[in-house]
Write a structure and sequence with these properties.
1 helix; six-stranded antiparallel beta sheet; four-stranded antiparallel beta sheet; mainly beta
Length: 170
């Protein structure tokens, strides 16, 4: 039977209660319900999720990715996408793609129903994100996330790691 195939997810049968309820720790208006579709079929190198943002809520916080590319495809609802400092109305059929070029992005549900979209991209053990409106960076390693303030971050050239040989040795 088709329903016994491990590679098939019938998204319309997924229970709302089974979705991961996500709130970005740096945005109190963030609220997203995520069904991780790719996890359900055992995918490891790429990811695709079905996401829902309730009316008046936001996805995460304006951010850009330094390692992983990401895309969004709007299925239902009305939203405003903040892309690189601009606000653009988005709705069903709109595709948004974010390479690792530093362009920040964010979604806000401005409609009266859930903003529903597919969210996907690369999956790696390490990711670095920039939050320009907050002046922060995040380094993610697996399930761990460390936040750093831009003003406190120290930038060193790779040569700074090279030790000078002890005097008298070469």
């Amino acid at each position: 039977m088709a329903d016994d195939i491990k590679n098939l997810v019938r998204a319309y049968e997924l229970a709302f209660e089974d979705a991961a309820h996500i709130r970005h720790p740096l945005n109190p208006n963030s609220e997203v319900y995520v069904q991780r579709l790719s996890d359900r079929v055992g995918m490891k190198r790429s990811q695709l999720s079905l996401a829902r943002v309730p009316p008046g809520k936001e996805s995460f916080v304006p951010h850009s990715h330094l390692i992983q590319e990401e895309f969004l495809f709007i299925l239902d609802g009305r939203g405003v996408a903040q892309i690189g400092g601009q606000e653009i109305a988005v709705g069903p059929g709109d595709y948004l793609g974010f390479p690792t070029d530093g362009t920040s992005h964010h979604l806000i549900n401005v409609g009266e129903t859930d903003l529903v979209y597919l969210m996907g991209g690369e999956r790696s053990q390490v990711e670095v994100s920039h939050f320009p409106t907050l002046g922060k960076f995040a380094v993610m390693f697996g399930e761990r996330v460390n936040f750093f303030d831009e003003k406190d971050a120290t930038q060193l050239h790779a040569r700074a790691w090279l030790a000078e040989p002890p005097r008298g040795r070469r």
